[in-house]
Amino acid sequence: MNKLYKALIFDREVSLSVLETTDLVNDAIKIHNLDESSAKTLGGMLTCAAYMAGCLKSERGAISLTVKAGGDSATVSVSGNIQGHIRGYIDGSCNGRLNGGSLTVIKDDGFFRPFVGTCELVGEDLSENLMQYFDKSEQIPTAISFGVKCKDGKCVAAGGVVMQLLPGTKQENMDRAEEAMQNFVNAADVVEKYGADGIVNEILKDELAGERLYQTFPEYKCNCSRKKIESVIFSLGKEEAFNIIRDEGQVKVHCHYCNTDHEFSRDDVEKLFK
What we know:
Helices cover 36% and strands 32% of the residues. The chain is elongated, with a radius of gyration of 21 Å. The longest helix has 18 residues, at 36-53. The model has no long low-confidence stretch (mean pLDDT 91). It has helices at 22-32, 36-53, 126-137, 171-181, 187-203, 226-236, 238-248, 266-273; strands spanning 3-9, 14-20, 62-69, 75-81, 85-91, 101-108, 115-120, 142-151, 154-165, 214-216, 219-220, 251-255, 260-264. With 274 residues, the protein is of the alpha+beta class. It has a 6-stranded mixed sheet, covered by helices on one side. It has a 5-stranded antiparallel sheet with strand order 8-9-2-1-10, sandwiched between helices. Strand 3 and strand 4 form a beta hairpin.
C-alpha cells in the first residue's frame, strides 16, 4: 500500500515527509508497459508528485511537474491533487536518465493564480534536481532522498524522505536534520528493508517521539472519463466533429496518463449533439 507520513520535528522547526510508493510505480509499469529505466524515471517523478500533492491545502489543490530532457527530447509529465490521485507518463526514451533539460512545476492551491516555477536540470539524480528546484524557485531549504528499485520487470521498492526547514529554524536543528538525512542516502534500499512504517517506527522513532503524525494514502488514478471527453468533442462543434468522422471513421481521443483510447462512433457523436 502506498503511504505518506507527515510531521513536524526538531522543535517543530522541520517538516518531515516519509513516502512509500512501490504500488504506485507498479501501477504505472502495468498501465504504460514500462521498461526498467523508464520505470525508475517516471517512478521518481510520481513519488515527487505524491509528496507535493500531500502538501496542498485547498480542496481544489493540484500540482503538475514536467521534465523536458535534453538530447532525445524525452518528456516526463506527472500530476496529482489533494485527494492523493497521482498519474503520469513518459514520452520518448531517456534511458532512465535526466540528461539536461528543464523541470517545470505548476502548483494550484485553489486560492490565487497558480504558481509556476522552472529550473534547469543540474544532473541525472532526481533528488538533486528537486532540491535545486525548491532552493531556486520556492526559496525553501529542502533535503530530498528518493529512490526506485526494479527487478525482473517489477518495482520492489520506491519512496524516500523529505525534510524542509521552516522559517527561523535554529542552526542546531538544521544540523539535526542533516544528520538524520544520512540514514537515507540509499533511499530505495531503506524503503525495501523497512517500508514507510519501519522508517517511522524504527529509524525516526526518537525524532518523532511525542509529535503528531499525519498519514494519507496516495494512489495511481487518472481523472479522465468518457463524459469529460464528450465535453471536449462538443467544444469542437458539430461541423468539425463530423469532419473527423468523415476522415477517420470515428473520433478517438487518447489519454496519455492512463493510456486509454476513448472512441466515439458516428452514432455516439450524433447522440452527443442532439
